[in-house]
Each structure stands twice: as C-alpha cells, then as structure tokens.
Write a structure and sequence with these properties.
CATH architecture: 3-Layer(aba) Sandwich
Strand order of the largest sheet: 3-2-1-4
Number of strands: 4
CATH superfamily: NAD(P)-binding Rossmann-like Domain
Radius of gyration: 12 Å
Bound molecules: nicotinamide-adenine-dinucleotide
Largest sheet: 4 strands, parallel
CATH class: Alpha Beta
Shape: globular
Length: 95
C-alpha cells in the first residue's frame, strides 16, 4: 500500500513512517519543518528516514499546491494526518 504521512519529520510521524516501511509499505512523508520546537530534532528524524529510503518532501500543507508538489498523488491509498491543519486538501488526495 502507498501511504502518505503528514508531519513525517515529527515525533509520531517519523516513527509511523519507519514502522510502515518495515511492514513493507511504500511511504511518502510531508513536513514543513515548522519551528514550533527545535528544528534540529526534525532534521535528525529526516536523516533517519532518508537512510531507510523513505521519501520526505518539504511541503507546507497550508500554502503549497499539493497537486503540483506531489504528482503521484492519485495512487496514494492511505493518509496519516499528524498535524493540526484543517484538511481542506484531502479531497485532492483520496480517489
Ligand atoms: N506526541 C504525543 O504524545 C501526542 C499525544 C496526543 C496527540 N498528539 C498529536 O499528534 C500529532 C503529532 O504529534 P507529534 O508529537 O508527532 O508532533 P510533532 O510536532 O513532533 O510533529 C508534527 C509535525 O508536523 C509538521 N507540520 C506542522 N505544520 C505543518 C504544515 N502546515 N505542513 C507540513 N507539516 C507541518 C511539523 O513540522 C512537525 O514536524 C499532533 O497533532 C499532536 O497534537 C501527540
């Protein structure tokens, strides 16, 4: 299954991404590296995901055009929403 995780550089998102990858799923992460807390911790998480061949895109879900930024959008089959953003974009992602 192809899974999209928002907030993938964060605490729960990064662990979720790693676990799903271990389970054999294809994982794409999105994060805007917000400075809500120390960004270096998110960079460490991003490095760890990269070493496990998990793609992590720097996207801000409030402002970026997901259709442009994420061309493979139509084949995503599951989304883990781990940030507090009104999910107005979800209709673009679920087929
Ligand atoms: N950690 C916990 O114990 C816990 C418990 C209950 C609920 N939650 C909830 O679960 C969610 C994830 O928690 P966490 O601890 O992993 O938080 P976190 O802050 O570590 O991760 C959230 C990630 O979302 C990213 N993000 C924020 N706004 C974004 C945007 N507009 N576009 C793209 N990325 C964006 C941040 O950069 C961050 O990396 C939160 O909503 C939190 O309130 C967490």
């Amino acid at each position: 299954m192809k899974v999209l995780i928002t907030g993938a550089a964060g605490f729960i998102g990064s662990h979720t991404a790693e676990r799903l990858k271990e389970m054999g799923h294809e994982v794409i992460g999105i994060d805007n590296f917000s400075p809500y807390y120390d960004v270096s911790l998110k960079k460490l998480n991003a490095d760890s995901l990269s070493k496990k061949n998990i793609e992590l895109l720097t996207i801000d879900l409030r402002t970026d055009d997901l259709v442009k930024e994420l061309p493979s959008i139509s084949i995503i089959s599951f989304i883990f929403q781990l940030i507090r953003v009104f999910p107005a974009y979800l209709h673009l992602m679920i087929i």
